[in-house]
Amino acid sequence: MTGRSDDLLPTTRRALLHRVAVAQAEGRTPSLVAGVVRDGRLVWTGARSMIDGHAPTPDVQYRIGSLTKTFVAVLVLRLRDEGLLDLADPLARHLPRTPADGATVAQLLAHSAGLAAETPAPWWERTDGTLRPALDDLLEPEAALKHPAGRRHHYSNPGYALLGALVEKLRGEPWGEVLRREVLAPLGMDRTTLLPEHPYAGGFAVHPWADVMLPEPLTDTGLMGPAGQLWSTAADLARWAAFLAGGDEKVLAAATLAEMRRPAVGPDNADWTAAYGLGLQLLRHECRVLYGHAGSMPGFTAGLWVSEQDGLAALALSNATSGANTPLLAAQLIALTAEHEPRLPEPWRPLPDVDEELLALTGPWYWGAAPHALRLTADRGLELGPLADGGRRSRFRAEPDGTWTGLDNYYAGETLRVVHAADGSVSHLDLGSFVLTREPYGPAAAVPGGVDPQGWRAG
């Protein structure tokens, strides 16, 4: 996946490069590399460095910190999709005798298990993993729980270490090897590794009050690796962004990825600027909802976001402990690209074929006296919504048994059925016990509770 010089307009490329240059200069980071993905393809990369003429290429590795959690979450969802676990399972069912025995898999994925944010001292990000050789060393048994499970979002790095151990238990081999074989190799991400491989950037701390630097230690965090160990490149993360946007049947279905990016716990802030799904962060930025993740480790920061509505993703990597706000930069690159080159809508095209019986179902239906419209979509799908503003609108997926399953909003997961009369004609639609008829409260309609025999009348 490579970008070409004609993938974006010159004015767009200039605006993106300017934003990266400002971020590197004002953030005082030794180097910074970024990329934009459009419709699954890397269409632009840009970089700046403190060394003239030596900006990093998209193949240079940076540590990506908590972006690692998105990879671990995909491994766990693969186990779920294979039937090896349920998200409602307590961790102890598969990995007993940890300080988080009662936490469910879903709660660990969503950081809602109430676990402590960090391990006991010393700080795990700057110390060798050999200091924490066992799972019991990741949490203090008497102080593992900081909140009641399932009640609120409380970010927990040890929680993801436990998820990595869960993957190891169910697969019977180290989580990094499982990741390489099941995810990285199928996606062509051969530059994403547990430990750095040349060429890679060194990590630095920049003095807050003077333009001087200090090297940060390069650590192998051991059991805490699933929380933030991975190294990757702009080119590999572009592939990861394309996967998060569209899925890949070799790794994880698009429907499961859509499940991962739904908020799993109510956000704390009333204006909903941030939330968390199953391993994916959600962010509101400039009137759009993004999903992805931020990351940091000593010497490095990272950010990757996807905008479904724009068909865009962006990433940014830097090699300074603080200063360059790479998660914000990645969000800004999406906004800049969308502003300069807004997404073109797909051209209207007629359906490739039509089922006459389905076509006859389209048009107005009434829930009581409220008018709704039923539309036919591709693959025998349906859309149902009120004719007035507001109300309950949903899309429905056709099932092999002749029913439809709701995909979103109030009717998500609910079943829509066509009910026939004794003579074979269509009587009504049944949607989770709600009855929709061809006329409002018709005298012969199958309306629950019946219809007043005198029918409609003036006041």
Automatic annotation (TrEMBL):
Pfam families registered for this protein in UniProt: Beta-lactamase, DUF7586
Domain DUF7586: 354-438
Range of residues in the leader sequence: none
Domain Beta-lactamase-related intervals: 23-338
Alphabetical list of SUPFAM superfamilies matching this protein: beta-lactamase/transpeptidase-like (SSF56601)
Protein's recorded name: Beta-lactamase family protein
Lineage, broadest ranks: Bacteria, Bacillati, Actinomycetota, Actinomycetes, Kitasatosporales
